Amino acid sequence: MGDVICCPEQSTLILCEAFSASAALQVHFPDTERAEWLNKTVKHMWPFICQFIEKLFRETIEPAVRGANAHLSTFCFTRVDVGQQPLRVNGVKVYTENVDKRQIILDLQISFVGNCEIDLEIKRYFCRAGVKSIQIHGTMRVILEPLIGDMPLVGALSIFFLRKPLLEINWTGLTNLLDIPGLNGMTQCPPSIFGVLRIHFIEAQDLQGKDTYLKGLVKGKSDPYGIIRVGNQIFQSKIIKENLSPKWNEVYEALVYEHPGQELEIELFDEDPDKDDFLGSLMIDLIEVEKERLLDEWFTLDEVPKGKLHLKLEWLTLMPDAANLDKVLADIRADKDQAIDGLSSALLILYLDSARNLPSGKKMNSNPNPLVQMSVGHKAQESKIRYKTSEPVWEENFTFFIHNPKRQDLEVEVKDEQHQCSLGSLRIPLSQLLMSDNMTINQRFHLSNSGPNSTLKMKIALRVLHLEKQERPPDYQHSAQVKRPSVSKEGRKMPVKSQPSMSPGTSGSNTAPSTPGMGEDKPVREEKPQPPEASPLGHRDLGRSSSSLLASPSHVSAKEPTPSIASDISLPIATQELRQRLRQLENGTTLGQSPLGQIQLTIRHSSQRNKLIVVVHSCRNLIAFSEDGSDPYVRMYLLPDKRRSGRRKTHVAKKTLNPVFDQSFDFSVSLPEVQRRTLDVAVKNSGGFLSKDKGLLGKVLVALASEELAKGWTQWYDLTEDGTRPQVIT
């Protein structure tokens, strides 16, 4: 090893001779050990790991892809070769201090640089594509907990990356896939876009009054607003001051992606300077909206004793021709005004492929850092930056909601991010797409104000948003109408006056017709929505919002302080339903010690991670909601926090009264703080949107003030109707 010279002025080390690899590792990672023995083991096992991966691709992934879409029925992998270079573990860190004796924590610094050959073929369309290399670099944490005295000695295994790993995939023939009917929006619609949901957020009635005066002695009204979620698209309505029957009359449009379980989730809140109060929630299965096409209903709010919400939901299909465009334009009044904002008549789908022969920018003989800015009207989007290249490849998808394609243009500009100068631009009238085959253009476009041979390759398609109105008999009842106990006993019909409306983007001189159906008497819609999936708030505005009635723009909520769809502990209805079910089960007989069954939990606090760890193992002897049993899952809150982000939820176990979950969850909270909290655990039955068999199966409230929390425990708990007086099963 050579000499090390220390320069105090710069506080740096200058290496006169290179350190060995092991010494370098010790300098940068003093608490990380090399794992050459593990790498040798992985290398020896790599051929068998590759066999497992190939089997996984052919026996699991390939049939799943074939069944996902009729156009993929001839999909197959023609070659699966992960390469000869095995995954490498560059270092292992084992945590030994401040770690509970019932857990093992390891950090693995992994890297995989594989010259893969994964080829696929769709024979029906003579399409071939594949992956020729994959790179993954990151730190993977492995947690084994809790350690138990029975085989296999570990209760649960958690594996995750501490930070987002570096992932690079080198695709081949990707654009070939875009030419397959049904797989890309450039031919039918993007592979993941199922349709567009138009949400008329109209009004509410009989909301709770949350404002108080004189230190709570005098009750007032509320300042309600709504949060509307479709996937990761989030909209927030305007705030109506001092009103328990607010009228918003706003409209939002959101993309619906092609995967199961999507729901429209709405939460109402009372604006408060300190903490916004919860006013009710609603969950609607989008599959049912797609079936009905049009729903104009009053919905009873869930999780609160009273309140109703009036919504009109329109399911818009994506049509690849302009046959219905004039009718659509007339319906949204886009044929008579010059506005570029308002309700949408079409969806523009853009696939940005690549550019060639871009100019060097300000500096001669230097490659630019190109990016592409695209805009339609006031809506603009931007591609990723590609560094130091005059022939960038982006391969990105974008969507734009279009008010009137006959009058709007797509404007595209390629810019150099480093020098903030233009490398070329082009303008495409959307009316040009109306005259194109399948309303699609796929070509290299010559850039203006650029080099003589500078081109930009794009594939753009226009899809008309068509509402298919179905003929209904006079006595038709929506299939999505599910009954549940209603808090409001007075009157099943609520007359609603129609409201005047204005088209957005105008000064109010052009008046649009009132919303159809708003003047009719509507029965109170009674349905109990399925408990929501736990998911983080996403603020990426994939949809758009507009207001055809009051021209009030909506925006994405930038805060996340609001309570979630509240825990059912605040709602006596679920408890009453469960007690009634218990009386039915009893029917003159004496039920056992645990009539609702039991749940097994492991609970402990990790000082190393500063988190409360809860492992949901299993339940036993649950009550049956139907002849097929129950579809149970477990929902948890760490009270008093009932925000959306504080909810934890297991998967759903189908048709069983003795489900096994073995899922681990954590709550970020210190030990002194958690000992003042209560764990709210509810076992619920999951039913489809049309199912009546949804509700509470049992609850337990676990006080966390025990001094044994740092050590942890695994116990069975009796489930009760409201979670009180839980009996611990020793």
Automatic annotation (TrEMBL):
GO terms for biological process: endocytosis; endoplasmic reticulum-plasma membrane tethering; lipid transport. Residues 544-556 have a biased composition (Low complexity). Residues 180-299, 324-449, 595-717 form the C2 domain. Residues 31-254 form the SMP-LTD domain. Residues 519-530 have a biased composition (Basic and acidic residues). Its main location: membrane. Residues 498-514 have a biased composition (Polar residues). It is a peripheral membrane protein; Multi-pass membrane protein. Keywords: Calcium, Cell membrane, Endocytosis, Endoplasmic reticulum, Lipid transport, Lipid-binding, Membrane, Metal-binding, Repeat, Transmembrane, Transmembrane helix, Transport. InterPro entries: C2_dom, C2_domain_sf, C2C_KIAA1228, Ext_Synaptotagmin_C2A, Ext_Synaptotagmin_C2B, Extended_Synaptotagmin, SMP_LBD, Synaptotagmin_SMP. Coiled coil: none annotated. Residues 470-569 are annotated as: Disordered. SMART domains: C2. It is found in: Cell membrane; Endoplasmic reticulum membrane. Homodimer. Interacts with ESYT1 and ESYT3. Interacts with FGFR1 that has been activated by FGF1 binding. Interacts with the AP-2 complex; identified in a complex with the AP-2 complex and FGFR1. Tethers the endoplasmic reticulum to the cell membrane and promotes the formation of appositions between the endoplasmic reticulum and the cell membrane. Binds glycerophospholipids in a barrel-like domain and may play a role in cellular lipid transport. Plays a role in FGF signaling via its role in the rapid internalization of FGFR1 that has been activated by FGF1 binding; this occurs most likely via the AP-2 complex. Promotes the localization of SACM1L at endoplasmic reticulum-plasma membrane contact sites (EPCS). Belongs to the extended synaptotagmin family. This is Extended synaptotagmin-2.
